[in-house]
Amino acid sequence: xxxxxxxxxxxxxxxxxxxxxxxxxxxxxxxxxxxxxxxxxxxxxxxxxxxxxxxxxxxxxxxxxxxxxxxxxxxxxxxxxxxxxxxxxxxxxxxxxxxxxxxxxxxxxxxxxxxxxxxxxxxxxxxxxxxxxxxxxxxxxxxxxxxxxxxxxxxxxxxxxxxxxxxxxxxxxxxxxxxxxxxx
Length: 184
Known about the structure:
The protein is mostly beta strands. The chain has a single domain (about 20-175), classed as Trefoil (Acidic Fibroblast Growth Factor, subunit A), CATH 2.80.10.50. The chain is built from two helices and twelve strands; from the N terminus they run H-H-E-E-E-E-E-E-E-E-E-E-E-E. The strands form four sheets. The chain has a six-stranded antiparallel sheet with strand order 5-4-1-12-9-8. A two-stranded antiparallel sheet has the order 2-3. The longest helix is centred in the N-terminal third of the chain and has 17 residues, at about 1-20.
């Protein structure tokens, strides 16, 4: 019985090597999961994507404590291979992560439906690591598209590229809560 289990596991892990990168990335941000997103920018500062439901803004929080309830995100199917992220913050208000490609800002929208086309995100795998991703906004208006955490000042916006100097466009996906840096 153990040999059969070993061979089954070996076969299943081999299949993973043949999956397209987008499929592997989708498994990390699977609809129905609650996640946190940790910015991997190269400047010291706050790192966790934090929705501020009270005022509809988005920033970076220093940890995953209860004080920053907007660091928990629920993943939804955005259609056509995309995702939508709903902020689980404890205060009432707008909740959908919304990239505003016209001016390069990020905020929270009241719905993921039109006219809020910036609430659909394409997941892009970086460095062949299924935990390191980029989020590309698919809003209808041309402009910057990459979710960019600015760890130096704790803000979030959209960048034109994932290349330097935009080191905040790489994000580590963690199942929520994963309290490595601080107590939850």
